[in-house]
From TrEMBL:
UniProt name for this protein: LuxR family transcriptional regulator
GO biological process: phosphorelay signal transduction system; regulation of DNA-templated transcription
SUPFAM superfamilies: C-terminal effector domain of the bipartite response regulators (SSF46894), CheY-like (SSF52172)
Keywords: DNA-binding, Phosphoprotein, Transcription, Transcription regulation
InterPro entries, sorted: CheY-like_superfamily (IPR011006), NreC/VraR/RcsB-like_REC (IPR058245), Sig_transdc_resp-reg_C-effctor (IPR016032), Sig_transdc_resp-reg_receiver (IPR001789), Tscrpt_reg_LuxR_C (IPR000792), WalR-like (IPR039420)
Organism: Tumebacillus flagellatus
Response regulatory domain span: 5-121
Length: 219
């Protein structure tokens, strides 16, 4: 059976040295390369094709979350095991959402780290206990209610239908005989109530949910 080929990505030389020194004692793990930044890590993955990437999260340039996303887009078969000092929700959840197969803290024992590398290589998910607790807590949070047409006023629905037809604010104002400032206010309220970032997303949501009828969609 061939060795597990590992790439180390961390912006601290001493961290890479310590991890490399221990993992070199493991007969089934081979360190094929190192990178000192997220950008370099993505490049090295493309060049070396490692089985597992040990990924730091907080680095200069692109962070570990974005690097993980790019690595897996470039090479989906590679597994990413996060190795970091951070336990905050804004680090943990985005890293897992980006596709990381595991999340370990830098306080992990060398033997445990080697075991985690073997597990993610086999396709298992490995989470440090405190991380697993955060994931469970996040899953148990009440979900935001799905936006419905009932949250909008009648006038806001009129504006949304015209957004769905691709009209500009000026065109909407002329159609409804209201000022452009009023249109902008309605659009802002619509985006806030539907929980979307822009009018394109609002239009897609309206069409998908049938809030824009067939005639409206024809324009």
């Amino acid at each position: 059976m061939s060795n597990i080929r590992v790439l180390l990505v961390d912006d601290h030389d001493m961290v890479r040295l310590g991890v490399r020194t221990y993992l070199m004692t493991e007969p089934d793990i081979e360190i094929v390369g190192e990178a000192g930044s997220g950008e370099e890590g993505v490049k090295r993955v493309s060049e070396l094709g490692p089985d597992v990437v040990l990924m730091d999260l907080v680095m200069g340039g692109i962070d570990g979350v974005e690097a993980t996303r790019r690595v897996l887009a470039e090479r989906p078969q590679t597994k990413v095991l996060v190795l970091t000092s951070f336990l905050e929700d804004d680090k943990v959840l985005p890293a897992l959402e980006a596709g990381a197969s595991g999340y370990q803290l830098k306080t992990v024992l060398g033997e445990e780290l080697a075991t985690s590398i073997r597990k993610v290589h086999r396709g298992e998910t490995v989470l440090e206990p405190q991380v697993a607790a955060k994931v469970v807590a996040n899953l148990q949070k009440p979900k935001s209610p799905t936006p419905t047409a009932e949250t909008l006023t009648e006038r806001e629905m009129d504006v949304l239908r015209l957004i769905g037809r691709g009209m500009t604010n000026q065109q909407i104002g002329e159609t409804l005989y209201i000022g452009i400032k009023t249109v902008k206010t309605h659009v802002s309220n619509i985006l806030a109530k539907l929980g979307v970032e822009d009018r394109t997303q609002a239009a897609i949501l309206a069409i998908r949910n049938g809030w824009v009828d067939a005639e409206s969609k024809k324009g």
